[in-house]
Amino acid sequence: MLKRLVAAFAILATPALADAPVVSNVNVSKSGDLWNFDVTLSHNDTGWEDYADAWRILDGNGKELGVRNLAHPHVEEQPFTRSLSGIRIPSDVTEVGIQARDTIGGWSSPIKKITLR
């Protein structure tokens, strides 16, 4: 009986894994030598304990080219779009990845690939 109680408590004490944030849309524009990104995310934000808190731009080697931190949960605003401008991207980079992060799971494994034109 004690073993069952301990096992049940261990299962209940294990935090549930939240769904990873999803990058659903990316609009990219260039102004001079700098790039602007409008990224739309969706995530089941529940409040301060679990929300999408950033997205970043990566080159093909995984080098971070820019990051947009998100300052608060978006419980009532899903999906939502946030922008990042003034990003310098080397001229030989023709594709970037957009990766989202949340407070529970960290950086999500799906990376949305974007071709730069």
Folded structure, characterized:
With 117 residues, the protein is mainly beta. It contains 1 helix and 8 strands, in the order H-E-E-E-E-E-E-E-E. Strands 3, 4, 6, 7 and 8 form a 5-stranded antiparallel beta sheet that branches. It starts with a helix and ends with a strand. Residues 5-15 have low confidence and may be disordered.
Strand content: over 45%
Task: Average the pLDDT over all residues and give the rounded result.
Answer: 85
- Total helices: the number is 1
Distance between the termini: 65 Å
Low-confidence region ranges: 5-15
Task: Indicate the overall shape.
Answer: elongated
Helix content: 10-25%
Can you summarize the main beta sheet?
Answer: 5 strands, antiparallel
Helices and strands: which structural class? mainly beta
